Amino acid sequence: MGVETISAALSEPRDAIEEIVEPYLIQQGFIQRTPRGRMLTGLAFQHMGRAVPQGFVGMQASLFEEPEA
Fold first, then answer.
1. Sign (positive/negative) of CA torsion 26, 40, 56, 48?
2. Could you tell me the sign of the dihedral formed by the alpha carbons of 48, 52, 53, 58, in that order?
3. Pick from 17, 41, 20, 45: nearest CA to 29
């Protein structure tokens, strides 16, 4: 989704989302920026106690985790 949608949903200025909230969520691995907008990662679904949707391709590898064998 776009930053304008996120901004409206949270009742926060766009600048605050882009400069404060978004970098934190990216650092934690909960969202990723794509050409289609911001997308949740599988880690975000797990963090919220939700099942990762079937066929979900939003999994982003972490720079600090070892790949699974």
1. positive
2. positive
3. 41
Place of tokens 């880690």: 43
Amino acid letter at 57?
V
Q: Are 32 and 41 in contact (CB under 8 A)?
A: yes
**Three-state DSSP state, 58:** coil
CATH class of 3-47: mainly alpha
pLDDT digits (tens, 9 = 90+) for 39-60: 888 898 889 899 888 877 665 5
Q: Among 7, 27, 5, 26, which Cα is nearest to 15's?
A: 7
How far CA 17 is from CA of 28, 38, 47, in Å, comes to: 15, 12, 20
Compute CA 25 distance to the chain's CA centroid, rounded to the nearest angstrom: 6
